Amino acid sequence: MRIAQLAPVVESVPPTGYGGIELVVSLLTEELVRRGHQVTLFASADSQTSARLVSVIDGALRKTGEIKHHSWPAYDMQNLFLVQDMQHEFDIVHNHTGWQALPYLQQLQIPSVTTNHNLIEPSALPIYRRHQDHAFVAISAAYKRKNHGDELNYVDVIHNGIDLAQYPLLPTVERKYLAFLGRLCQDKGIVQSIEMAQRLQMPLRIAGKVDPSDRDFFEAEVKPLLDLPFVSYIGEVEHAQKAELLKGAIATLYPINFEEPFGLVMAESLACGTPVVALDRGSVREVLTDGETAIIDSSIDRLVERFPEVKNLDKRTCRLRAESLFASPVMTERYEALYMRLIREAVMTRGSKTLVTT
């Protein structure tokens, strides 16, 4: 198949630090190339890929610092113009840039699919409703339930994948601390993680970025806590550092404060044989199994109370769950089958123009 992958240009593909969407796009693109497909990746020029790379900007927007945040969508729109101009070179377009692409995809003469990697904001809902007949794929069943599954045309649920080779399971490593990995924001539960570590009297290592939109929260609520003696803030980390952090942890803390659509951190932690201690929100119970690969409960109090159960969770069981559900070839095989189905349907109906993944 001739496949176009349309990525955001805020981060490179793959990202050098935090960037869940771009990591998934990279893994999917590389695996499709390995399977013999002709893949074109629309992304920033500093991206690294074995596919053909098409770019409208030299470097990822968040890295350059020279382009104002309000101008970022203009580059996604330029990418969409290129996709329209080049559509005769593709059998299908896979969009990862969200709602803004839907009106452009509708104008294509070939099928397209959009994976929405984030929750649908109320301001974007009218746009989705206007394109409700497009094919949407949910990244989790929880995401589908929470994101208007009764209104939009969800055609599949496909979990995000990870590169297991980057997360080696080392059974002999000595695990001495708790880990937190993710954006340092209210949604991800960073303050609750520090509280848990304090109550458990255990060291906590924190890795993650601070987005501009989270800066006020970070300065007021998080930064003062980073001086606590049991807290170690590493900053934003690359993949090798991320794996090092997770594989040395007794457990990964995941007390999220919102309905997380998927949560790559959970899958990455399992791949390292590290159990997760998580609040029961969003897709947590799809990714984790309480009492086998995680401690899942309804409150911080309950998680702290049940924490001693972590010693009963087997590292190999965690790894096997990651291998069976979240390996990148598993994800790619699902998307590959979906592409072929959408292409066949488009050929049969001829009137079908655009199909979308969530």
Give me the secondary-structure category: alpha/beta
Instruction: Report the span from N to C terminus.
Output: 22 Å
Please tell me the CATH architecture of the largest domain by its name: 3-Layer(aba) Sandwich
State the major sheet.
6 strands, parallel
Instruction: Specify the CATH homologous superfamily of the largest domain.
Output: Glycogen Phosphorylase B
**Number of extended strands:** 13
Number of helices: 14
Query: Proportion of β residues?
Result: 15-25%
What oligomeric arrangement do these chains adopt?
single chain
Structure description:
This protein is of the alpha/beta class and 358 residues long. It has 2 domains: 2-161 and 327-349, Rossmann fold (3-Layer(aba) Sandwich), CATH 3.40.50; 164-325, Rossmann fold. It is built from 14 helices and 13 strands. The strands form 3 sheets. A 6-stranded parallel sheet has the order 10-9-8-11-12-13, with helices on both faces. Helix 8 (215-222) links the parallel strand 9 and strand 10. Helix 1 crosses helix 14 (328-349).
TL;DR?
The protein is α/β, with parallel strands linked by helices. The protein contains 14 helices and 13 strands.
